[in-house]
Amino acid sequence: MVIQLPLLMKDHVAGKRSPVTCALKCANACLGETCNSSSNSYFRDVASAALSRRAMLGGTAAGALAIAVAGTAGAPSADAAPVGPLADAGKGPKAPNGSPLRFDAIDPVDYTVDEFTVPEGFEWHPIIKWGDKLFSDAPDFDWGAQTGEAQKRQFGYNNDYTEIQEIPDSDGLRAVMFVNHEYTNENIMLPEDTDAETVAEVGLNAHGLTVVELQREDHDSPYEYVVDAELNRRFLADTKYAFTGPARFSDLLKTKDFPRGNATRGTFGNCSGGLTPWGTQLSGEENFNGYFRTAGDTDEDKRYGMSAKATARGWENVDPRFDTTNDGYENSAHHFGWIVEVDPWDPESTPRKHTAMGRFKHEGANVIIAEDGHAVAYMGDDEKFDYLYKFVSAKKYKEGNRKHNMTLLEEGDLYVAKFEGNSGTINGSGAVPKDGSFDGTGRWIPLIVDGKSEVEGMDVDEVLVKTRLAADKVGPTKMDRCEDVEPSLKSRKVYVACTNNDGRGTEGKAGPDEVNPRTVNRDGHVVEIDELGTQSGTSFAWNVLLVCGDPAQNTSTYFSGFPKKKVSPISCPDNLAFDSVGNLWISTDGAPSTIGFNDGLFRVTLEGNQRGKVEQFASVPVDAETCGPIVRDQDRTAFVSVQHPGEDGTFDEQVSYWPEFEGTGPKPTVVQILPARTEFSDVKKGSEHYDAIQWAALKGIIPGRADDTFAPRKKVTRAALAAFLYRAAGKPEVRLPRNEPFRDVEQGETNNYRAIIWAKQEGIVGGYSDGTFRPTQAVSRQESAAYLYRYAGSPSAPKPTKAPFGDVPASSTFARQIAWLKKEGVVSGSTFRPTEALTREWAAEFLHGLIAEQKVAFKG
Asked: Which of 211, 446, 493, 815 makes an SS bond possible with 233, Cβ 3.0 to 4.6 Å?
């Protein structure tokens, strides 16, 4: 059976944006009447310049009052750093803010290319694909024999939001992954002769959510998913969800199936999400309207994009809840459009939908703990000319009390944003105002405060179930599709991805304003918000960080003053993430239709003279969207979910075969990007020191040579060993001396100067009586034992009474250090060869044994 898609957008898309996406993902929202036809102001420039919250708090108050998110009971911290040495390694220019993830930005990739592209020195690996079985009782995926029952036990379709949390006490080798499955494209999933019942069953069960365990051999290896793992779970169309909050038991939630209005079945249209500080996952129900047929004649139906037309998938013909004109199902659409909270650590738990956070087309929700202890969630309504929201919990976060913290999103205050600018008239060209930036102040307008409605004529449950209508009444700012909204745990600033709005400034539509500064905004922009006072307050400062596009094609771009010729072209920002040092990462959705390149993943510098610099890190295959970015730069790895590759094909005429390229069709896939293993021509695979050399090279501690050799038997100099240890320690800041400590070590003249100075200051190396260091002199194996011993902080170790090796007497100068190495399991055997020169292969072996195997860290 072929689904007859209403491809209304086929004559209205530019470039390569697929009309299939428009039909299946958002029910052709762009061609419908603008859902928000309210007369709210769309931004007037009336405010004065903004003060930063840090200035108002006296510089240090925010940091002093911040609540730590580490140590939540039963789950790892949302902000926990991954395990592993902090090695600033890899090819490419120095990364911003000291991130270890270095790379040369890739060139943009033409929209017709069916490949996943990463920088030189990196490779990608699929973690899990649509149809991969999560349980051993499921059948292997078969394109020609799909069933709804099989799909229930297999990974779902169109993976969007993704999060990975390390499993405690696993040394970072095991993790649990959470994934949204936003929507399906049955026309490329199933053969055309598939019967209608099977099409519906497969489609229904390919939606929802997945929790799956991962494992890896070591920190340099890719993750693999684990079949039959304890935490594995699919959330399906018939999974029960509990409602929480003020609208629970409301008449507006009562249906034939759930007459008390306290629960529902299933979740659909799940887009982005968020990780809470207590280790649960949030998921936003976004384009739910496309699954329902309604009477289509009420203000609410029109405001939420509902209509009397048949839906694309026709589920109303197999399940009465998808037609609100059926008796007893008048409120069934009210069961969707919420923020869902899932506990991935408890496979028996009931997921919840939080009514206190409002009902609209939720892109997602992201939580930060305010200085006063309240949980604050930021949320975007992903529709043209809709709004930005904020939720503040009634109760406060309690460190370590997970049971309590899991109730924080059940009650609280709900606000909608009003932006005001300070630059006068905005002409819509994207030109920077005369005052030098797009910026201003804003306020959070209350909808619900202290459990009471702040909207005239609407009760609390009406405000929460019909949040769009409630917000229209209080005059917030109409935005250019607020997608992901992410607070930085480093700076506490909040970033809003406004993906695009080609209706801005067109006939009958709201015109440009300072926070949405471009008419016919096809490329989107990113807004930076700085809360004034505390995170839970009601006023904020803001500025536009990026006005996106390809500067070579579009003059109306802006990158916070960074030179346009030095940025990667970027269009349609969608999902946001941060690395460990606070750099912003953006995944995109829609670039093929605007700038003619495949979508991708980009890093954006936020501080210093590089602020606004955009660097592309990855490009996804033809027709695909980049979703769910996760950046673990300490491990020099990143993850993305590749959604709807080849969506514009048919089952018999596919346009993508990624990632398997087996001639059948594409599969949405979660991908890990990590440094490529380098095969050195002079290091035979499987040889004695192969694993140690690979580890040292991957970590950037002992890099290879330009000719793709490692020179394993080359002698290591004193300067080189200092450099190896400096890199292994994460290249700490070095206090440069006023007077040089060695007369043969001079800044600008000596290789590895900073490493030598660091090693001297840390007491790892010393000099000779003549005041020299002799940096080019070969270091002996016994001297290297002393270096490693001091690197570890000179731990308490008794002087041996017996010779640790046949050639190392107990009375020898370095006996203590060599005996310590032996005790730590770094070296073994009958002899040590103490006076021989240390070679590069043995340096790798010693460091690998000490750091990777024995987990001995630098103790400065």
From this structure: 211
Tell me: the pLDDT tens digits for 757-787? 999 999 999 999 999 999 999 999 999 999 9
Backbone angles phi, psi at 813, to 5 degrees: -55, -40
Q: Are 727 and 759 in contact (CB under 8 A)?
A: no
First to last CA, the chain: 67
For tokens 């859902």, the residue is 35
Q: Which two tokens stand for residue 704?
A: 């290879």
Q: Which of 558, 565, 554, 562 lies closest to 596 in space, CA to CA?
A: 554
Residues in the chain, total: 860
Sign of the torsion angle spanned by Cα atoms 717, 721, 724, 730 = negative
SS3 639: strand
pLDDT in tens, 242-268: 999 999 999 999 999 999 999 999 999
SS3 376: strand
* Angstrom distance (rounded) from CA 581 to CA 566: 22
The token duo for 394 is 């009634």
481: left (phi over 0), alpha (psi -120 to 50) or beta: left
Distance CA 580, CA 490 (A): 8
Kindly report the number of other CB atoms within 10 A of residue 649's CB atom. Answer: 21
pTM of the predicted model, to two decimals? Answer: 0.84
- C-alpha 559/C-alpha 554 separation (Å) is 13
**Structure-block tokens of residue 576:** 């946001």
E strands, 324-411, are: 339-342, 352-354, 366-369, 374-380, 384-386, 388-396
Estimate to the nearest angstrom the gap between the alpha carbon of 236 and the chain centroid. Answer: 24
